[in-house]
Structure formats: C-alpha cells, structure tokens
Amino acid sequence: MAGLLPGAARQRPVSLTDAGGRYRLPAPRSPEEQTLVALGLVSLSVGAAALSIVQEQWVPIASLAIPLLLGSLLLTFRPFLALLVVQAGCLGAVLWLIGATPLRLSAVVVLALSAVIMIVAVGRNRLGSMGESMLIDLRDRLRSQSVLPALPGNWSAQAVMRSAGGAQFAGDFVVAAKTDDGHLLEVVVVDVSGKGLAAGTRALLLSGAFGGLLGALSPEGFMRAANSYLLRQDWTEGFATAAHLAIRLDTGAYQLHTAGHPPGVQLHSGSGRWQVLGSYGPALGLLEDADFQPVNGTVLPGDALMIFTDGLVETPERDFTLGIDKLLGEAESMARQGFEDSARRLLDRFDSSADDRALLFLHRR
Known about the structure:
alpha+beta
C-alpha cells in the first residue's frame, strides 16, 4: 500500500430473565426503592407479630416467614440484615408476652434456620448481581470501542452491530482509528467464531488487541499480526474472520484485506453499480504462514463502501453469494432515499436474528 502512507509504515431497563434465560423477580435497584421495600417488610413483620399476640390461632408465629422470604427476594444484603434484626425483636416480644411453649420454640428454631439459609442465598445473589454488572460493563466497553472517529465533512460513516436473538453479547464487532495524523482511516470488521457470552468475551479481548494494532503497524502488516495473535491464544474455538480497510481521507485511495470474510462492495456513483471487491485470505487463527491478498481502489466523490459479516448475507438455506446479491438489491433501492443513517436502515430491511451481524457503511459526499 505504497500510496496510502507517505512515510514509514443509564438507567438500564429491568429484565425479567437472567443470563441463562430463567425468569426472576425484578428487585428494586435504587437505594430509595430498597428503603421503601424494607420499611414495608418491617411493618408487615411488626403487624404479624402483633396479630400473633392477640390472635395466635389465626396468625401463628410462623407467619413471620412471609416477610422474611420476600426480603430475601427483594432486598440487598444490608437491608435484609436490618429486617432480620427487626424480626428477632418481634419474636422476642411475642415469646415474652404470650409465653415460650415447646411448639412456639420449635417455630422460632425453624425461622432461625430459614434466616441462616436466606442470608447465604442473599449473599450469593449479591455476587451474581456484581457479576452481571461486570458483564454489562464489558458489553458497554465493547460497544464504545466500536464508535467510529469523527470524519471530515465530505465523509460519512456508520457502523451497526446486532446480536443473534437480541442477546446482550455478540461475536461481531468493529474497531476503527484515524492514523497518519488523521489522514488515514483504518477500520476492522470482525466476526468471532461462536455465539453468546463465549463469543462476546473473545470479541472483547480481540477488540482491545486489534485496536492496539491499528496505527502501530502499517496496513500491510495488520492481518499477519492479527493472525499471529490468535494463533498464540490457542483457543479451542479460536478462529475469526475479518476485513481490514485502510482509506486515505484526502484522496479516497484505499486498500482492503479480508481473512475468511465476505468481500467488501463498492458503489460507483458514475455507473450506479455495485462492485464486489475481490480480496481474499484464510480466516485468522488457522494457518501460521497465511497470505492475505488485498484489493486496491479509490472512493471517488459520490461513491460508497460496505463491509459486513456473514450473518447478514448467509443462512443455512442460502449461500452468501446469493445473499450479497440480495443485499446489493436492497442497497440500490435504499440509495434513492439518500445515504443518511444508511447502515441502520439497511440492517432493518435485511435483518436476520439467527446470527450476529455487523455492517460498516462509508460514503464520500
């Protein structure tokens, strides 16, 4: 690529399911909500204790287990301990006022054992919430690394990623950076093998590594360095497909490398036709001495480039070449409305939730 480089090289919505898809009761999140729930359960405990004193035949001591159970489901660790202290006081008052018979003492022992079990359960639930928060933070970091840098006014670019089945984590991601004093834009579109959390964690690791490689190496050396990095990881399911685009923002000259990835496509505004860009190379992480053959070209004013993952064009019933033809047909139809927010609109028109998808759309005005 001698002509490219002149020199050397919230508030989160409450979910009714956990990460495994099991239904769970949505717990109050804010401290104010926790305080209100704790006060309500304290009032319920005091009321149950008072009714046990005056109407034990209708409201036995064991009824205190109801607010105890609700507290273990709705409260965090500290408010739950405060509820246990209140319940201990209520039990002491009941036994002092109406007497400690063997039957009542056995009920107190059962409540005490239940409280110990619930303390352990609440503690484990707290650790699970911390783990969930960590995963959410990792997901947000992956998305933030995929934000495209600001481009000159005569360029527009959008990158959109969606996960299979609306899962929180996806194996498809985009990493971009401006190098060579802002004159060169480098973008990597990656599809990590696998789905769900396993693919998402590998995608997070690779996005950080690939982001560090951008600008540190010449565009010609990026794919080889990325391939060597994946080989060193020695993952059982550790390959990835990728497309690396390096384009000069002043001239529009570009070089595109692909590794086991669907080819990029370019719209030539003069003819109004889309061209499939014939770069090729094996998927990353499979061969030590892989050879990646680039394609060179120029994006003229009015032209556009698209790079996408196979989840957008390939299905078990359809080869990706037919999917590309259909995608380009949708793009030609969409082009009549202009290229504003084109990546999202195209993904909405040509969306399949069976696989992770990522799409980069670059347009030179």
